[in-house]
Amino acid sequence: EFQFPKGMTLTEHGQVFVCDSGNHRIQVFDMLDGFKFVRKFGLKGTEEAQFTSPLDVAINCASEVLVSDSCHRIQVFDLEGTFLRSFGTKGRKEGQFDHPTNMAVNDENALFVCDQSNHRVQVLDASTGAPLHSWRASKKKKAEGEEEPAGDGDAGEDGDKQTDWVGVGSPAGIAVNTHGVVVVSDYRNNALYSF
């Protein structure tokens, strides 16, 4: 039974890990056995091995399960659901998050995270969480004499309207292929980007 299922991932052995966001847990099913229930892990909370609305799940190259949640962190588990470690806190610095929504891991064990409220995609080591790179957005600067465009832009921290964005505005979905191409969906700009 689910309540607001969100992100999911598959293992090479046919297990499906699903973020059961409203129930604050991960559920695991066997795709090769008619989606038979295998296990669940996690409880509501902010401590280790607890979740506050898990958002996405990914598997790294060491077959560890990475889960992002609304506590602005990524927790790492083994395939049985045993907590191993976590990384990330709320913030804007490298390795910190503000609403990490979707994730993808490439063949080189790089973790790509849609750091949505920080308006960027972060690239981290999928085992250690060490920051490797990021793509971020910035407000488009007005040319001299240019008027501020009319619109419903969100007010930023400094009160400026954030209507014109250059780069990734609000990354929502992410995918990586075997050739290293990263594709990001951006719901603020109604666009897809590839890197």
From TrEMBL:
Domain of life: Eukaryota
Residue numbers spanned by region Disordered: 134-166
One annotated GO molecular function: ubiquitin protein ligase activity
Regions that span the bilayer: none
InterPro entries referenced in this protein's UniProt entry, alphabetically: 6-blade_b-propeller_TolB-like, NHL_repeat, TRIM-NHL_E3_ligases
Keyword Transit peptide listed: no
SUPFAM superfamilies: NHL repeat
Name of the protein this chain belongs to: Peptidylamidoglycolate lyase
NHL repeat placement: 1-32, 38-80, 84-127
Pfam families attached to this UniProt entry: NHL
Protein's organism: Alexandrium catenella
KW Repeat (keyword) present: yes
One GO BP annotation of this record: protein polyubiquitination
Acidic residues: compositionally biased ranges: 145-157
Keywords, alphabetical: Repeat
